Amino acid sequence: MSHVGTGAGTGGAPGDDVRSGRAARLTELLAAALREEETDAESEKRAVAAFLAVRDLTAAPRRTRRRDDWRPRPVR
Q1: DSSP-assigned letter for residue 11
Q2: Which residues, at least 6 apart from 27, have a Cβ–Cβ distance to it below 8 Å?
């Protein structure tokens, strides 16, 4: 079994193995949701919460693009 990219003894960043485990759990939850014929509101909420948790855990902060920043520009 390979642990490449998990941070487990590979010199990866601390916490990579935790992120990998959470990503695997998210994959399980999403796969289970796709197999369901009907979706109940509670399951949908759990799937969205899992997605947001993983996204927030792994996402690097992004700068606002100039065209998306509608604040008035500073006077030079």
Answers
A1: S
A2: none
Nearest to 49 by CA among 20, 41, 21, 5: 41
The answer to the question of residue 6 being in a domain is: no
pLDDT tens string for the chain (76 positions)?
444 444 444 555 655 666 788 888 888 888 887 876 676 889 889 999 998 888 877 767 777 777 787 888 888 8
Considering the entire predicted model, what is its pTM?
0.32
Residue pair 16/6 in contact by the 8 Å Cβ criterion: yes
Residue at 52: amino acid letter: L
Domain span at 54: 16-58
How many domains is the chain partitioned into structurally?
A: 1
Comparing CA positions, the residue from 46, 50, 45, 42 lying closest to residue 22 is 50
Residue 7 lies in a domain: no
